[in-house]
Automatic annotation (TrEMBL):
EC number(s) reported in the record: 3.5.2.9
Listed transmembrane segments: none
Organism of provenance: Rheinheimera maricola
The protein's name in its UniProt record: 5-oxoprolinase subunit PxpB
Keywords: ATP-binding, Hydrolase, Nucleotide-binding
Main enzyme class: hydrolase
Stretches of the chain forming a coiled coil according to its record: none
UniProt-listed SMART domains: AHS1
InterPro entries: CT_C_D (IPR003833), Cyclophilin-like_dom_sf (IPR029000), PxpB (IPR010016)
Keyword Nucleotide-binding: yes
Length: 250
């Protein structure tokens, strides 16, 4: 198939497959761009209706998967142009606010002390600053339910560990550079661990498999160990942190 690329004002539309188009807004993490992505998804769903198979929003782009039996690239392209003509610049979001409980401690967050000493602040201040911010869900990826949340207080920004842990437990709350996240399942990972969240970030058996979606806002709320256990949290054995750091991937 011939590669199609069309400039739509400041937007860019590119063929991403036989029944897919990728809509790019920019190349940066920005709440205004994220709000445009959410507006676009709402307008596209209404405009394309049953021709849509799926929409996959991310930081500054949307992947549009359409039914090739009912439409084609050129018709979808024209419909997208119509949608984009109705976008408005806004920092507002249409997502919901989700509160996630976190058991912050050096027991549940083995990198808390590392962050505190690196930034020359107390562990208590690390915890306070992490809770003080509302985080936008910019993207979900790496694993089902892994929500990339931004942006972290500048004082808490930490590079990814140079030597990733072989196993990060489910529910681990972590920081890497300007982002924070909750690991939805046990997996290898190199983010800095600061606590544990008892909320399941991915449960395929639930009516809503994930508690958050792109465009939502997340606030973390500190709980004690007893409450963490009461809510179904588990305390796994955690690897001690390595001292050297670098990089940005989970």
């Amino acid at each position: 198939m011939t590669r199609l690329q069309h400039q739509l004002n400041q937007y860019q539309l590119t063929v991403a497959g036989e029944n897919a188009l990728m809509l790019y807004f920019d190349q940066r993490i920005d709440p205004v761009i994220s709000a445009l992505v959410q507006q676009a998804c709402t307008l596209i769903r209404a405009e394309l209706a049953e021709d849509i198979i799926d929409l996959l929003p991310s930081y500054a782009s949307v992947l549009i998967l359409f039914n090739p039996l009912s439409t084609d690239h050129y018709r979808v392209q024209a419909q997208l142009q119509h949608c984009l003509a109705h976008l408005q610049n806004s920092n507002q979001h249409s997502g919901k606010l989700v509160e996630l409980p976190v058991y912050y401690s050096t027991e549940s967050g083995p990198d808390l002390a590392l962050i505190a000493s690196t930034k020359n602040i107390s562990v208590a201040e690390v915890i306070q600053r992490h809770q003080a911010v509302s985080y936008r869900v910019y993207a979900i990826g790496f694993a089902p339910g892994f929500a990339y949340l931004g942006e972290v207080d500048p004082l808490l920004q930490m590079p990814r560990l140079a030597t990733p842990r072989a196993k990060v437990p489910r529910g681990a709350v972590a920081i890497a550079d300007r982002q924070t996240a909750v690991y939805p399942a046990a997996s290898p990972g190199g983010w800095n661990l600061i606590g544990l969240c008892p909320t399941r970030m991915f449960n395929p058996a639930a009516e809503h498999a994930m508690p958050v979606a792109v465009g939502d806002e997340v606030r973390f709320v500190a709980i004690d160990k007893a409450e963490f256990l009461r809510l179904g949290g588990e305390l796994p054995e955690l690897e001690l942190p390595k001292l050297e750091c670098s990089g940005t991937k989970p």
